[in-house]
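Recap slide: Histidine kinase, sequence and predicted structure.
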Amino acid sequence: MTTSTVTSVEERRRQFFRWAPYALLVVATVLALAAADRITPRPLAVLVALLTATLALQLWWTRRERAFAASEPPAPDTPGVVSIPGAPGPASVTYFVLRTALGFALTWVSPFYAVFACVGYFDAVSLLPPRPAYARAGLLAVALMLGGSQSGGLPPRSAVQWAAFGGLFALNAALALGLAHLGGREIERAATLARTNARLEQALTENAALQAQLLVQAREAGVADERRRLAAEIHDTIAQGLTGVIAQLQVVSMTTDPEVARVHLGRAADLARHSLGEARRSVQNLSPVALEHDTLPEALKKTVAAWTERTGITARFTVTGTEHPLHDEIAATLLRIAQEALANAERHSGAARAGVTLSYMGDEITLDVRDDGHGFDPAAVPARSRAGGFGLDGMRARAERLAGTVTVETAPGEGTAVCARVPLGTP
């Protein structure tokens, strides 16, 4: 329910319990006076006195209830609970007890006043203290008045009337207590539901906070991943290109042959232009330039040939399995791993020969880069990588983004083999 709906329902309840006793008292009086010559043996003065006392009590309670309602905000609406301002308390208990006593006296004068007395069925739970015994006592008192009225008036005048009174009282008491019990169960269920809703709202609030935290962490992880990507791309493009340019310039500085110098200067210029283009593509998160017009096998073949020409190391490229199109990210990852592995072989291995094999193996693709260099101790690599390198760690990070792996088999004096495996369906 919305707040406005709850307020409207609560106000209608107040209006009913404010004015219903007056209306029922008037109806009962009209019926009693209409049948006074047949079933009302009590003096009229007694009836007038009782009506005056009842009306005074009702006016006092109405003024008190309205004053309390004006000074207090409406209580939250709970299904099955009648909200009466200021109740239960000493004043409400006094009002219920006096009204019940006057109702009993009026029913004694005329059984038609049970019409007025039945209002106790509706507000006994709200006016009396919350202990079940008090509510049951109030409901039994009302059932007593209704049983007497329905059996022909109080006191019963014959054995038959006494029997009818006993049966009707039992019936009214059973109905009142049964309905009160069901109402209490409804109230308990409503209270349980309210507590569950409160816990659910708390959980939703906590989940919203957790979701916001996860979003922040995801953004931070995305930023960190992009930084790692750019660092790896810079390492694989600019750093390798500059290394090649420096190597070509060193040859130029040591030669006296103008033709040799011209060839190496041309290579240095080509490497510089290629590295610049790769750097721009890395910033724009584009595929390597070698894959712009070629498939991965073609790009690897050209990369191996260019590497052989530049380094003088004999290298051969081989493709096994049935070739088929690859996702751009898989092709770019394997090309970068091959370039890094060849760059490592050039800088560190002292190899005379190298081999690159691309194998299509059903649901995965494998890249192997081998050399016959002097190898190295793998246990020494992590410390160097943590110091700031992007070599082996960079290759592994690239493969892991695609749920792949990179393994290195090497030992001092035994060469090096780098194997990258990537599932074909990962991207």
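Strands lie at 314-320, 353-361, 364-371, 405-410, 416-423.
The two ends are 48 Å apart (CA to CA).
(End of recap.)
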